[in-house]
Amino acid sequence: MQFSDNSPEASRPFLIWQKITEWGQTHYRDRLFRKDELIPIRSGLLYLVTQGAVRLVGTNQSPIIDEDELISHGAESDSDFPQDNFLGFVSAGKPFEIAAQSDFKVQAYAHWDDTHVIWLYWQDLENWTNFRQEVYESLRSQNQYRSLLLMALGQRKTIDRLLSFLKVIIKEHGQLGEDGYYLPYLLTHAQIGSIIGATRVTVTRLMGKLRRQGLILIRNDSLICLPHPQSDR
Q1: What is the Cα–Cα distance from 149 to 165, expressed in whole angstroms?
Q2: How far apart are CA 197 and CA 200, in angstroms?
Q3: At what angle do helices 158-173 and 129-153 cross, to 10 degrees?
Q4: Fewer Cβ in 10 A, N or C end of the chain?
Q5: pLDDT per position as a tens digit, 206-232
């Protein structure tokens, strides 16, 4: 897990982001979004999240559903399986871009109220040469995260996919709490189901099983937490 520090080196990116935020406001390249509001995006542009968080969702792609799901929920209609696939969060202080794909549409939503996004062309980064390298490194890290996510979702058993997904996403976005590392964003069981290829009912049942086994915790604010190893308590 990586956490911010207060060293002089850590203050430099903050100053750069502050300058870029001012640039975005001056050039009318920024906007505040309400919770769950659709963010207009298109390929070829770079987006910077300066406040809040963005939720990326892919459409027109079949969800991952194993035979056990279809058998155990044969009475449920296909509409119970969400057709939108969660692709991840983009936290404040992170960039994202949308690759041009003909058969896969990516949409972005504000996950919190007052999510602030700046958009620019890649050539605009010539104004901040050092920052451009930081953007490349951040996007490369996001690609590595997506590879880990795909590996987690490739497991056959639904409960294994669920636990692996939670471990990957909390490792990427987790914050340290009293009981362990927790995901600072709310995810509904329906949203989790769209990721792992399961119904909301199945996710609810398996989340309960993981809680009873002590593999996850649910905080009072409904955030999902991976508890500290027993040896660390």
Answers
A1: 6
A2: 10
A3: 160
A4: C
A5: 999 999 999 999 998 899 999 987 544
